[in-house]
Amino acid sequence: MKKICFVVSSEYVVKAYLLPQIAALSRVYEVSVAANTQDTGFLEGYGIDARVFAAPVERRILLLRDLRALASLTRLFQRERFDAVHSVSPKAGLLTAIGAVFARVPVRIHTFTGQVWATRRGASRFLLKNLDRLLSALTTHILVDSRSQREFLLAERVIPRGKSAVLANGSICGVDTARFRPDPEARTAIRRESNIAETDTLFIFLGRMNKDKGVLDLADAFSRVRGGRPNVHLLFVGPDEGNMLPRIREICSGCAKAVHHVDYTDVPERYMASADVLCLPSYREGFGNVVIEAGAAGLPVIATSIYGVTDAVEEGVTGVLYEPGNTDALAEWMERFAENREMRRRMGENGRVRAQRDFAMDSVTAALIDYYRTLWADARRSR
Predict the structure, then answer these.
(1) pLDDT for 185-210, tens place per residue?
(2) Which CATH code fits 184-358?
């Protein structure tokens, strides 16, 4: 039986994106996970038959810790003699690729889910971009979670066309449309907790809160919209990685009671169901999985017109796009959605149809299974 090891920087990546793929692959192959975790039994609660190894891989660049993580991964790969390693996220990817080359792992796969350097300038962009080029050179196969992101990486000469691919219509995992769906009970319960009336318009941001996600732009636009509309609210759901909340509260000081925050949650679908419009003002995304989750929940989307997101939003049908950083345009669209319930309903319904048709989780998982089968078949023919 073939042995595969997924390598990630945290449990969160597995829980948020990889559970269905790992579960499906584990029924065919011997699957392991290497993650920065102290709970090596966390997959047991999901009924997944896969081993978990603690690997000290961190998201930030910390040279000494990174060297220790590289040594740890190399020893793991040498000991377990995996047929393939599959990494997700840039730091985990580079350390995995180097360690797998040292350990002579024959198949080395990396999934690109967005580029930190896309919004950088100068030396920082040069360094991070070339680290991605090194990662690409050391892998044998590359997956990219959206078509527009793949074209961007090809144009920037980061990846070669021949060994890169996109699964199905894109997305790292697709969307569980039975989980993300319109849910009147959850809508009522969440709104009651936050003292938001059923008839009020609730905008939601769901994801990691940092500057690149555009959360300060969203706060600025909302403060203008709220000025003339006491029946609109804004809900942030996700960890405050960039210490954004103090600045958001300062920007929205005149409407503080209308701005709500919930930290990391295992039930994002309930918060989606409570809202009316998803806002994704991001400056960089790989695909924007949150967009198709919102669509599945029946929400229209206001998002930036950047690579990755343009694959997830069908403009004018499931949502609208605007230039990143243009808070005037963001505020204008928020006002229009607040005023037009029919537009919200129509685009929300279109979003659910598209999520079910083009991005169902089962389809993306099946595409990954087929990808691995083709990969092994190609390897046998090469030998």
Answers:
(1) 999 999 999 999 999 999 999 999 99
(2) 3.40.50.2000
